[in-house]
Design a protein that fits this description.
ten-stranded mixed β-sheet, Rossmann fold, about 775 residues, 25 helices
């Protein structure tokens, strides 16, 4: 007897590797295998798409139990009693078994489903042998560049190579190739050409479609094609990867798995039953075409036929004109696909690129997004709608896995800088509804906040206290992409599902957004009451325009959870660049600063804000940077580190940078120009304005101020920006500094406060 896919049904003998497996007391281990498990489970018995992560029947290999670490070598596999891996994950990061590292989450999640998961971390990409270290996986390979896009990890915003890598033991650079996902996938294909290959992680997610590549200054194909992979999972991939692997375990070919949300793959044509919306062009001035129903399959029906089908003659009006009613069928979003301009078109036409970027960002809400398709020389790249957000129970399930919470023992005493930064921090949620155009979070994690329960978060703090070496009682962060969006959401699920706004807080806070921070305030209070916890700090960036809506939260934060300095990100002071960033005006910063200083004074604490600013963002002029520099001087800020705009793949601001168009509005060939700072000399100038206090920048600033007709700003008076005279000798600015108890730096110059921040990681907008 067989089931619907031809697999035998009934009780079966244990696989050879399991049949003789013995426990420590030499007794045979029992493995429970029934018609509902493993490759013998009926195809009709797995949950439907969107099922909870914990609803799947376990794969037969669950009897092996939980590994202390996912194996990275054959010797570790032998110790676990494995003859093979079911899934092998290849990553560009060092393997840290902690839930801030993507491969640890995916690996432990698949292990909890009953699969045997191996890790190949930072392999030598020059030879396929490194990708054969764990043998041939039974089901598939999963490939990722790691927690960051490998190009952003390797190069600065000025395209200069970095000498270090925060995700590598010892912080050494060069442990991964450029475009790591692509290179790793090609080596896997060489080693095992017939094993299903799935791409994932932020590099794949941000390159899932034709995208502008800043390092080559050209539009590249979807990484799926160049990597020769079978499938790409974008966004939060837990739900997708669990369903895919279970279906592979049932013997379903990966080419037939085409209905999983959050995936991209190649296909030959639009499947039967789908309606295709043609969005391959934008409106041009000129002849007005007849109205065409946009929901009819444009590949099959002519314009005349579309008009005939849409029109119904009602009669003649009093003036003798024919009355015609146009009807539009009700849209079935789950059976609709939008055809974007082809790769060849967006590569050669910047306006069409901006148009495609706009359409893509309008289709990011899981509640109403439609599938997208893009042509590539006769083949179609198909993108299913984004994944459904994880529920709180599912988030707790993911973060409650038995993580060791430390790096793999093979690294011995070598420190991994990224781990050292987050080992005492807790991720309390995912997603961000801010919609900042320069940021990659929305494209990857989405704008619907996915929250953990308070109980789950407190359990993790206790886990850190009890397991992580070196814990001194200080939790370094309770946060996420944004520190204060925990449990904040739309007041109506129906409105949330229908909404197509790119931001819930720009140009102002949406009236449908619940801004109550009480759940977060309660969490802070509960966390600092835990035995063994002395201090809970907040290190994630704060959305201050949201925080001022709940002064009680600001008071709680400032009184108990600021270690002397608090990071916030105004990004700029001028409306021109702020409107292109989708950030609030500087007035919101001023309101937050007033509350911050008030509550700091009430608490008897000397505390400071560290504001972030971006130089050379699209839409920024020299005058904008001058005004920002003057604002910094008036407020006594001197930034030791400055952040230049970094065009990350697929971000809206990157589309502005490349095309000179603004995809936040309807794209036109004639209108909507956005000036971008591309020339190295002008980028240098914009950074110099942010570091107006550095003598090395004074000659350039003097020259520029004279050209701008602002020589009145050269001199030694308080309102002037740079002095008239250059100091003798060394022109490099080195201000004296002393450390405070939190490890930040405070400097005093001419009686004014000066703030600086140091991190070992690239700009936050690319993380």
């Amino acid at each position: 007897m067989t089931d619907s896919i031809g697999a035998p049904v009934g009780r079966v003998p244990l696989p050879p590797a399991v049949a003789g497996l013995k426990s420590e007391n030499n007794s045979l281990i029992s493995c429970k295998i029934t018609v509902y498990t493993g490759i013998f489970m009926s195809a009709n018995s797995i949950p439907t798409t969107g099922a909870a992560l914990y609803d799947y029947p376990k794969y037969w290999a669950e009897c092996y139990g939980t590994a202390p670490f996912l194996p990275m070598s054959r010797a570790e596999m032998d110790t676990l009693g494995w003859d093979s891996c079911d899934i092998i994950l290849v990553t560009g990061d060092a393997y840290v078994d902690q839930p801030s590292f993507g491969m640890a989450i995916i690996g432990r999640l698949l292990e909890a489903q009953g699969f045997r998961v191996g890790i190949i971390a930072q392999p030598d990409w020059h030879d396929k042998a490194a990708f054969m270290a764990l043998g041939r996986p039974n089901l598939c390979f999963g490939v990722t560049a790691g927690n960051m896009d490998s190009m952003i990890n390797r190069y600065t915003a000025d395209r200069k190579p970095r000498s270090d890598d925060a995700y590598t033991p010892g912080g050494q650079g060069g442990a991964r190739p450029d475009r790591s996902s692509l290179v790793y996938a090609q080596r896997v294909r060489e080693a095992y050409p017939d094993v299903p290959l799935i791409l994932g992680g932020i590099e794949a997610s941000l390159r899932r479609i034709a995208h502008y590549d800043y390092w080559q200054d050209e539009v590249r194909r979807s990484i799926l094609l160049d990597a020769q992979a079978d499938m790409l999972c974008y966004g939060n991939a837990e739900r997708a990867i669990v369903e895919i692997v279970h279906r592979l375990s049932l013997g379903e070919p990966i080419k037939q798995i085409t209905n999983v949300r959050g995936t991209a793959f190649l296909r030959e044509d639009t499947p039967a039953g789908f309606t295709e919306v043609d969005s391959t062009r934008i409106d041009r001035p000129g002849r007005i075409d007849n109205i065409v129903n946009p929901y009819i399959n444009t590949q099959e029906i002519s314009d005349c036929e579309q008009q005939r089908r849409n029109a119904r003659q009602l009669g003649i009006d009093e003036n003798g004109a024919q009355i015609v009613e146009f009807t539009v069928p009700k849209l079935q979003r789950d059976k609709t696909v939008i055809r974007l301009p082809s790769f060849e078109k967006v590569r050669n036409d910047k306006t069409l690129y901006a148009h495609a970027n706009r359409v893509l960002h309008l289709e990011t809400n899981p509640g109403n997004a439609r599938a997208l398709v893009q042509g590539y020389a006769g083949r179609d790249l198909w993108l299913n709608p984004p994944p459904l957000p994880l529920t709180t129970d599912e988030m707790d399930y993911v973060f409650g896995m038995p993580y060791a919470r430390v790096p793999h023992p093979s690294y011995r005493d070598k420190k991994i800088p990224a781990y050292e930064m987050i080992r005492f921090s807790v991720n309390i949620m995912r997603g961000c509804f801010g919609g900042c155009t320069f940021c990659s979070i929305t494209e990857h994690e989405g704008r619907i906040i996915q929250n953990r329960s308070q109980e789950s978060i407190l359990n993790e703090i206790e886990d850190i206290r009890d397991k992580v070496p070196g814990f001194t009682g200080v939790i370094s962060d309770l946060g996420g992409p944004t520190a204060n969006m925990y449990r904040i959401a739309c007041k109506s699920r129906a409105i949330e599902a229908a909404c197509r706004r790119p931001s819930c807080v720009y140009p102002g806070i949406c009236s449908n957004l619940n801004t109550d921070h009480s759940a977060l305030t309660q969490l802070y209070r509960a966390a600092r009451k835990l035995p063994g916890v002395k201090k809970v700090l907040i290190a994630s960036g704060l959305r201050y325009d949201l925080a001022v809506e709940d002064p009680e939260y600001v008071k709680e934060l400032v009184t108990h959870h600021v270690g002397g300095y608090l990071k916030i990100a105004p990004e700029h002071t001028e409306d021109g660049p702020l409107s292109k960033m989708m950030k609030p005006g500087i007035g919101s910063y001023d309101r937050f600063r007033e509350l911050f200083e008030k509550f700091s004074k009430e608490a008897g604490k000397e505390q400071y804000l560290i504001p972030y600013f971006i130089a050379a963002h699209p839409g920024t002029t020299n005058e904008d940077m001058l005004n920002l520099a003057l604002w910094l001087k008036r407020n006594g800020f001197r930034a030791d580190q400055v952040q230049a705009f970094y065009p990350s793949p697929m971000a809206t601001a990157t589309a502005m940078f490349h095309t000179g168009k603004n995809p936040l509005k309807k794209v036109s060939y004639k209108k909507g120009q956005v000036e971008s700072v591309k020339e190295p000399a002008q980028r240098k100038l914009h950074k110099a304005f942010l570091r107006y206090h550095d003598p090395a920048n004074w000659p350039l600033l003097r020259e520029t101020l004279i050209k701008m007709g602002r020589a009145d700003l050269i001199g030694d008076r308080d309102h002037q920006l740079v002095p008239a005279d250059q100091p003798d000798g060394d022109n490099v600015y080195r201000a004296p500094r002393r450390k405070n108890s939190a490890g930040a730096h405070k400097k005093r110059t001419r009686g004014k406060k000066v703030l600086t921040q140091h991190t070992g990681l690239p700009p936050r907008s690319t993380r």
